[in-house]
Design a protein that fits this description.
The protein has 249 residues and is an alpha/beta fold. It is built from seven helices and seven strands; from the N terminus they run βαβαβαβαβαβααβ. Helix 1 packs parallel to helix 2, helix 3 runs parallel beside helix 4 and helix 4 runs parallel beside helix 5. The longest helix has 29 residues. It binds nicotinamide-adenine-dinucleotide. The site of nicotinamide-adenine-dinucleotide has 29 residues, from helix 1.
Amino acid sequence: MRRFDGKVCLVTGAAAGIGRATAIRLSEEGATVLAADINEAGVRETAELLRSRGARCESLRFDAMDEESCRSLVAGTVEHFGQLDVLCNIAGACRADHFLDLKLSDWERMFRINVGSVMVLCQAAIPHLKKTRGNIVTISSASAIAGAAYWSAYGASKAAVASLMRALAVEFSGDGVRANAICPGGVNTGLASTYSIPDGIDPALVQRLFPLCEAAEPGEIAAAVAYIASTEARYVNGVSFGIDGGQLL
Ligand SMILES: NC(=O)c1ccc[n+]([C@@H]2O[C@H](COP(=O)([O-])OP(=O)(O)OC[C@H]3O[C@@H](n4cnc5c(N)ncnc54)[C@H](O)[C@@H]3O)[C@@H](O)[C@H]2O)c1
């Protein structure tokens, strides 16, 4: 399939995991990709990999914590490639806490990375997406829907971005700009190694968060991103698309 011939896709979180798999998948389908991440070496490696396969791809370092960095990323993409068709918000961070120990500063940091950056990126991207009748795909999480004990800050931030996608889907429906969320369950990436689980958690409360089958591979989430971002999904708007192995049944 070449669903992204002539399309320019901005993929955040593209240094690793789901973001890198998405950059690969979209480029395999013909997209020109701007791969962005705070991990400069990782995202450069992604871009080199794509170029070695004949794709058109550039990388940019950005920090989701920084508003100007997010705005510059969108501006840089359009400056370099002349248009923007798809914004994939994949960069994100996770944390786990006993709720009673959670600091407001840590809660705010989670929201800054997982929600604030998505708000700013969408705000900067939408004027360009209006021109191409493009769309936004944001990675939320099954923990946005499940009662995610110990992941309260993360789950709440992921619920917020899913809600944001619904708001944008309605607000920009008249402009032909779609906005959707994908809610993965467990995915086999390095995310779990980036934060620690506090001592003394009740395993029975966490057990219910794990899917009935093994974790998904990043490419399986990327396949859903590619479908939702493509014109085949013209009628898919404002959804929170679960990919969780039946975890939430
Ligand atoms: N792995 C899972 O089980 C799972 C499940 C549901 C949702 N998600 C979500 O999927 C997305 C991708 O995660 P992943 O599993 O591929 O993990 P990952 O750790 O492989 O990828 C996350 C990427 O985000 C980047 N990032 C982190 N902070 C950043 C910042 N301040 N600025 C710019 N980039 C930053 C990291 O460098 C990394 O490349 C995240 O939003 C995550 O919350 C993951």
